[in-house]
Amino acid sequence: MANRLQHETSPYLLQHRDNPVDWYPWGKEALDEAARSGRPVFLSIGYSACHWCHVMERESFEDEKTAAFLNENFVNIKVDREERPDLDSIYMDAVQAMTGHGGWPMSVFLSPDGKPFYGGTYYPPEERHGMPSFQTVLAGVLDAYQNRREDVARQSDALLEHVQRGLSLDSQGGSLNASLPDAAVRKFHESFDGVYGGFGSAPKFPQPMNLDFLMRYLTRTGNENARDMITLSLEKMAGGGIYDQIGGGFHRYSVDAYWLVPHFEKMLYDNALLARLYLHAFLVTGNQSFRRITEQTLDYILREMTDPSGGFYSSQDADSEGEEGTFFLWSPAEIRAALQDQDQAELLISFYDVTDTGNFEGRNILHQPKPVAYHAKSRGVSEAAFLAQLDRARDSLYKARAKRIAPGRDDKVIASWNGLALAAFAEAARYLNRDDYRAAAVANGEFLANEIIENKRYRHTWKNGRARFHGYLEDYAYCGEGFLALYAATFDERWFTHARDAADGILAHFADDPNGGFYDTADDHEKLVTRPKAIQDNAVPSGNAMALGVLARLASYTGEARYREPVHRALAGMEPLLAQYPNAFGHWLGVLEYVLGDPREIAVVVPKGGDTAGAAAMLSETYRPGEVVALKQENASTVIPLLEGRGSVSDRTTVHVCRSFTCQLPITDPAEIRASLTASPGL
What we know:
Elements: H1 11-15, E1 23-24, H2 28-37, E2 41-46, H3 51-61, H4 64-73, E3 75-80, H5 85-99, E4 106-110, E5 116-120, H6 134-147, H7 149-164, H8 180-191, H9 208-221, H10 224-239, E6 253-254, E7 262-263, E8 266-267, H11 268-285, H12 288-304, E9 313-316, E10 319-320, E11 323-324, E12 329-330, H13 332-338, H14 342-351, E13 364-365, H15 372-379, H16 383-401, E14 409-414, H17 415-432, H18 435-452, E15 453-454, E16 457-463, E17 466-470, H19 473-490, H20 493-509, H21 543-558, H22 561-580, H23 586-596, E18 600-606, H24 612-618, E19 627-633, E20 654-659, E21 662-663, H25 670-678
Parallel strand pairs: 1-3, 2-3, 18-19
Antiparallel strand pairs: 2-4, 4-5, 6-7, 8-9, 9-14, 10-11, 12-13, 14-16, 15-16, 16-17, 18-20, 20-21
């Protein structure tokens, strides 16, 4: 018989609706039942693409004996961390304080008022590798709660005090430390893997925020260390098993130091951030392979992760047919059997280093140990001709793979992650002149405007026409970022208006006025045991850092101090952490780069009947992260202060180059315009 999760929209929660565990969704009903019955709460937090979440479900939550013990002694709540990042943040802080580490599935035990008193992550059904069995943990927790209630209360209060010990960003103002980016780059280099790229050792995560900061720094300084860290990391990731060599798109992370063996889930946020990163790298370095990865990744999202409504789905599982990675693994015989053209088969076997012994449990994760140039030379063809052959072979193998049982897909739409994807598609449309990407970006912008935003307030998730949960800081901030990128790709001012509305919502509902920065939840959000305020980048940029980036660029577009001042205050308050732990604050450093670079404001006015498309194209010939761009036709009304009162000179396209709304003389000469717009300092 289905439990209470049967009425939810989250695919992750629906996966658990037939468990014998009497699951509740998070809410008043569950907490009231815990208070009424005197039972503690068992809170299990996970997500659809999580491999070990599925393992714990099979081992424990589908086990009748374990379920009976849980049902008799606990009120059991199941939470999708992607739906409730606020709960995930609060209780992850508690688990990390208790155990020194965190992860998913997260298993937390609460008193009926929501205070945590014990927790961990995955527990096996029997004691294993030093981990206690889940049954042992349950018995121990229940004994403590029933017989040592005062100890439990002290532990709970101590944990809550730790969780509530928010970081103050308060500062006395003053100028920002202009040497911080230089020092951060030196610290990045200390942890850089000079052989395989990336930072640190196994497990290895792509860290797109850190690499994008290095990209911004490179465009300003031309620093060769930054260039080397970017290019080696991106080349090695693109050639490794962390990248889906056949279908495009990146898996979550690599369990080894050389990007070969991934955890096979694919997340929208990873692919949005990495597609944008590879795009920037292509624009800065001219490396065509980076463009290929950008396009293959975005094409994967369009093909497999796009709802007809224009929204983008959340994730694809690591598992298929009950095994992790099965969908993506090959043997030489399987490739030869899948492709009718045996020359194509042998090309793939050679290029992707497919062997009879395999590199993962007797089969092969496809990867590229040797460069395209090597294989082109061995075949006696040009690199372009070889790539054309490779693409035909990849397409054939993709079609063959599509006949396999595919990993499960979480088809809920998350506003914040869609904002990241919107920015990636909009920038790719702008810089690569891809009309299909522009259409996808506009469709996604329309989806967000029509399905996620109501009266300028955001919802967090959407599925099957139903939007749910009050929007979090990250929803406003990431979508604000996406709308600014969409404005620069289309110069349709309704997208600028949506970005500004998002920023105004952040200032009105999320500001931590006493301390600086922003809370993760709005001032009218459900009251929890604490109001979370995350500042550190994790798999995605912190909502605080992304919000500050949006505000900083709106300050450039508008000249308004109410956007600029929170940015300077928060950055000044963060300086000690940015100096000590730059690897944890890549997006903050990117915002600092923007602010310290004295950003340019480019206002373009095209005479009536002039070449608007040509002027827009000129604004997109090089990647210049240290500026904002705006464009209008002569005498057109505008909502953008940077364009107000601007006109053309001598009925010619006119460019106004400004800093802090102080402008140089207008430029009308085409050669001078191009020189001004395409100049990239430091390169």
